[in-house]
Structure formats: structure tokens, C-alpha cells
Design brief:
- The chain has helices at 3-18, 34-46, 50-75, 78-89, 92-97, 104-123, 128-146, 151-163, 165-168, 174-198, 201-214, 225-233, 237-250, 257-273, 286-303, 309-339, 342-358, 360-369, 378-398, 407-413, 416-424, 434-443, 467-472; strands at residues 427-430, 447-451, 462-466, 477-483, 486-491.
- The chain has a five-stranded mixed β-sheet.
- Helix 1 packs across helix 22.
- The chain is mainly alpha-helical.
- The protein folds into three domains: 3-296, no CATH class; 308-398; 407-491, no CATH class.
- It is built from 23 helices and five strands.
- Strand 4 and strand 5 (486-491) form a beta hairpin.
């Protein structure tokens, strides 16, 4: 598990194990509990495991792709909507977070459902109050899931809600506000019950956390951070989306320009201004990158059959350039597979898969214009880009590089001798903390007691302890194994 994912998994388990779903911690918490509740429900249904942690995001990720398709059909057309959904499903960063136990994807699902509901309220006058209720409830529930972060996409919707108000009348739809209040009710109940336990600290900690994030940079990520981070993590789709953005600015989409263009631009400005800049804060942009990339890629595919020689040559040159890159990737990957070590071979497999996928692009051009295979329509050229992305992602997943973020720790706890003790005994904790401590807490099935010194543990008991403390201790103990500066021991 990744560090953040482990924190969410452990906090959800703390709720589940203690039976206290309001305030299982010893002090006020800095996040709303919606996502913890969601994971704890899956623990209840399927047991405590990685799958239970990640299954909600897998489900919401699939539903988000379906929603993007439906939104694209309304704003653009069915073909581009299908292409946008296909692109989002093979965006690496999106796929990665759909397999991580964090609250980002559920929040994005609620945002997309709210946008879809607003669009439906425009189209179906008969049910506009119902759709308004759903839209408001989604935004209200977003606060339960992601705390104050939901206000960023809400503010990004304001240009559409205000500028287009005379046409859609959303701001005078009473059920929009009723739904928002209904969506806030679970958070309000939690705040009240938390207030009973912690007093004013229950809501002060929520506010203080936002102020702390807004007042400091993280990891020296300056104001230019997203200008390089988003293109890198959405490659190559970001560059198609820039072309699509240019096309939509030159020819605005009537009635929906402020959703297709205004929403992502406002959201990008917000997260750029916000002092704490982390890559997953930009995740809500990726569905819109997919929409714009679908517009750009669809237009480029049309240019491949253009009678304008310069336009057709542009696609030809792009295809051959990708073919050259593909040959380079395949050649380098084969060499590495023959002479490289095991650590680098797994990356060579990915390079080989990507190279083979990219070879479909020049193959399309050669087949259509040199071998005169007329069945090779521009859709085959578009499919080449998707195939290349899918093959490389499939190879990445096959090599275990998506989902297993701490293979050394995982291999350690899966050893038969270690697993047998973990599953049969209560394990104590001696000053366990930090990132490895998060994993130790989650993967230890039965917890003993936390202590500050190894001498406080009874004979024959088991414990996790920092390696340096175990070495310096005079208490007799047997080391069962060592992983990432922690030792798993038995007191003699």
C-alpha cells in the first residue's frame, strides 16, 4: 500500500474494530469521516483486506467513466463521448487512483454526477426538480467525503451557473439548495456528536487543516508545479487536449462552453494558487483532459483523409515519428531483456508493449496509402493510440507496478513463518510509527498493546520494534525477521 492509502485504510479499520464510527481517535480529527465510513462498510461486507479498501474506488472509477460518456453525449456527440471514456480509462494517473484507497475518485464521481444532473435538469423540464435535488445532494455529500476540497469544483461551476442562468435557471431551482442541505446532514450530525466528545476542537481542527494547507508549499512544489506535472502524468493525452482546447475556443460549444472549457480552467487556476500543490489535487481535471483530448484526436483523425496535402502530411509525419520511437523502444527493450538484470527487465516489458502498440500508427498509414487497404478508416488510427496505452498499462499491471507499492514489506509478511505468527497471536507495538508503521498497523490482524519499552512486554509475547531499539535492548528476545528498519521479535 502507498502511505496515504495505508492511513485511510488504518483509520477505517480503527472505526470498524472499535465500533466507534464518530470519534475513535483520542483527539479531534482533521478530516470528515465519509470515506472512512465507506471503507468500513466494505470491511463489514467483505472483511479487512486490500481488496476491501480498493473496491470502492474501482466501482466509482467505472461509474465515473460511464458518467463522462453520458456528459460527452450531451455536450458533444456520441462518437467523441465514447472516445473520451476510452481515453480516461487508459490515463495512467486516473487508473492508478482507481486502484488506491483514497477519497479522490469518490469525490470526482459526485462532481461528475452533479454536472450530469444539472445537464439533465436543462433537458428534461418535467424532472428538473428531481435532477436539481440530486445535483445539490452530490455537492453536499462531497463535503462528507472530501471536506473543504469539494468547494474547489463547486467554485469552478459558478461561471456556468451564473453566466448561463437566464437559460437554465438552476440558481432559482429550490431543490438544488434542498439537496445541498440534505447532503450536508450526515456531516452536521457527525460534527454535533464529535462536538459532544471534543467541544469546539471538532470543527476547529477541520478549519485549521485547510489553513495549514493553504499557507505552505509541500515538497517545494511552486506555482509552476502543475504546468509540468499534469502534462507528464497525462502523456500523451494532454497534448491532444491542448489541440482540442484550441478547437473549442475557436468554435465554442453552444450553451456548454463554460463546462467544457470554463470548469477545467477555473479549477486549474484554483489549485495553482493554492499553496499546497500535490499531484492528486489535479485528479478532477483528468476527465476534462479526456474530453478535450477526444475532440483533438477526433479532429486529427479527420485530417488523415483530408484533401489538403499539408494536413494529411502532418498526420503522416506524426505516425512515422511514433513508428521511429516504437522501433527504438522495441530494440532497447529486447537488448535489456537479453542482457539486463531482473530489476530492469520488468520495465523493458513495458517498453516493448508500448513500442508494439505504437507500431500500429505507421502500419495504418502504410496499409491505407501504400497497400491501398481502404477498410483502414481513421478509426483504426485512433485505435492505435488507445492500443498502445492499453498494452503498456497491462504490462505495468502484470509486473505488479500498479497496486503493490511496497513489495519488500509485502514479501516479508507473506513468509509462512511470519504469517503463521501474525494470524495466530496478538502482536504488541514498541514505538511503532512513520510510514512503515502505518503498514504494520494495518497488516497486523490482532493488536496487542502499545508500549514504550521492550521490557514492558511479557515473556513469550510477540512485538514489532524499531531495529535500533531492539539492538540496544538488554531484554532477551528472538528476532523472527527484519524489514525496513523494523524487527519482528519474540520475547524470551
Amino acid at each position: 500500500m502507498a502511505h496515504d492509502e495505508g492511513l485511510y485504510a488504518w483509520r477505517s479499520r480503527l472505526m470498524f474494530d472499535s465500533g466507534n464510527w464518530i470519534s475513535p481517535w483520542s483527539e479531534p480529527h482533521h478530516k470528515t469521516p465519509g470515506y472512512y465510513w465507506l471503507v468500513a462498510v466494505f470491511y463489514k461486507l467483505f472483511g479487512i483486506s486490500e481488496t476491501s479498501v480498493r473496491l470502492p474506488n474501482m466501482i466509482f472509477g467505472i461509474l465515473s467513466i460511464i458518467l463522462l460518456y453520458e456528459i460527452g453525449k450531451i455536450i458533444l456527440n456520441e462518437n467523441i463521448a465514447w472516445l473520451a471514456a476510452a481515453i480516461l480509462s487508459v490515463e495512467f494517473f486516473w487508473l492508478q487512483y482507481c486502484r488506491l484507497g483514497t477519497p479522490d475518485v469518490p469525490m470526482i464521481f459526485l462532481v461528475l454526477l452533479a454536472i450530469f444532473s444539472l445537464l439533465q435538469a436543462e433537458l428534461s423540464g418535467k424532472y428538473k426538480y428531481l435532477w436539481g435535488l440530486i445535483a445539490g445532494a452530490c455537492l453536499g455529500l462531497g463535503f462528507l467525503i472530501r471536506s473543504f476540497m469539494i468547494f474547489l469544483p463547486m467554485m469552478a461551476l459558478f461561471p456556468y451557473l451564473i453566466w448561463e442562468h437566464r437559460r437554465h435557471q438552476h440558481l432559482t431551482n429550490p431543490t438544488l439548495y434542498v439537496g445541498f442541505i440534505l447532503g450536508l446532514i450526515p456531516t452536521c450530525i457527525w460534527l454535533w456528536l464529535s462536538f459532544i466528545d471534543y467541544g469546539s476542537g471538532s470543527y476547529q481542527e477541520l478549519l485549521n487543516f485547510v489553513f495549514r494547507l493553504g499557507s505552505q508549499e509541500r515538497d517545494k512544489n511552486n506555482i509552476l508545479y502543475y504546468f509540468w506535472n499534469i502534462p507528464l502524468k497525462s502523456f500523451p493525452w494532454f497534448f491532444f487536449s491542448i489541440y482540442g482546447l484550441i478547437l473549442t475556443i475557436r468554435r465554442p460549444i453552444m450553451h456548454y462552453q463554460l463546462i467544457l472549457v470554463g470548469f477545467p480552467l477555473v479549477l486549474f487556476t484554483e489549485i495553482t494558487i493554492f499553496s499546497t500543490r500535490l499531484s492528486h489535487y489535479s485528479l478532477c481535471l483528468y476527465p476534462f483532459i479526456a474530453l478535450q483530448a477526444a475532440i483533438g484526436l477526433n479532429k486529427l483523425s479527420e485530417l488523415s483523409t483530408s484533401k489538403n496535402r499539408n494536413q494529411a502530411n502532418l498526420i503522416r509525419n506524426l505516425s512515422y515519428t511514433m513508428g521511429g520511437l516504437a522501433l527504438l523502444l522495441c530494440s532497447a527493450s529486447v537488448v535489456i531483456l537479453i542482457v539486463g538484470n531482473n530489476d530492469i527487465r520488468q520495465y523493458a516489458n513495458i517498453g516493448l508493449a508500448l513500442g508494439l502498440g505504437l507500431l500500429t500508427l505507421p502500419a495504418f498509414w502504410i496499409g491505407r496509402y501504400h497497400l491501398y487497404l481502404k477498410f483502414l478508416t481513421p478509426r483504426y488510427w485512433v485505435s492505435g493510440w488507445l492500443i498502445a496505452a492499453w498494452l503498456s498499462l497491462a504490462a505495468t499491471g502484470f509486473n505488479g507496478l500498479i497496486g503493490d507499492y511496497n513489495p519488500d514489506f509485502k514479501a516479508f509478511i507473506q513468509q509462512q513463518a511470519i504469517a503463521q505468527v501474525l494470524n495466530s497471536s496478538a502482536i504488541n507495538f514498541v514505538n511503532v510509527g512513520g510510514k512503515t508503521g502505518v503498514l504494520i498497523n494495518f497488516y497486523t490482524p490482532t493488536h496487542g498493546k502499545p508500549v514504550s519499552n521492550i521490557s514492558q512486554l511479557p515473556a513469550s509475547s510477540y512485538a514489532w520494534i524499531p531495529e535500533n531499539e531492539a539492538t540496544a535492548s538488554s531484554t532477551p528476545h528472538r528476532v523472527l525477521g527484519t524489514v525496513q528498519n523494523y524487527q519482528f521479535i519474540q520475547i524470551l
